[in-house]
NADH-quinone oxidoreductase subunit J (Raoultella scottii), 184 residues
Amino acid sequence: MEFAFYICGLIAILATLRVITHTNPVHALLYLIISLLAIAGVFFSLGAYFAGALEIIVYAGAIMVLFVFVVMMLNLGGSEIEQERKWLQPGIWIGPAILSAVLLVVIVYAILGLNDQGIEGNAISAKEVGIALFGPYVLAVELASMLLLAGLVVAFHIGREERVGEVLSNRQNDSDKRKTEEHA
């Protein structure tokens, strides 16, 4: 399982570097998902199955979906046809595809491997993790969640555009009807 540990660690490092250096937020989120899945692979190779499952469910699942929704709400990218065609070129998707394929090979190797042992270490149960988090650190966990929520609200308000006349309807015909009704 040390092979899986090192390969997953390398994938996590490479994907995280692409998250930092990528200028398009949607592509950076794609690399971040790959990085989080690779970190889950590191947890699995260490024998921390609960932490790996939480990494996949909470971070790679729920929080990343939330980030994608925030990016979509902010509408940071243009919707021009040329830009969308550019995203389909292999230069854009080949990096995440290669990292995902290597991660898939490592997962298949780990599942089909003869040795079912993780790297030496002590197993920690879910109950112990819950007691450790919500015992002495309950205030810190709650403050971190409130800070994340506040950051999302601030990002939404900073990134939105003021669009006059689009509150009630985005269609041109409806705004023309309102103008004629107001003058009548």
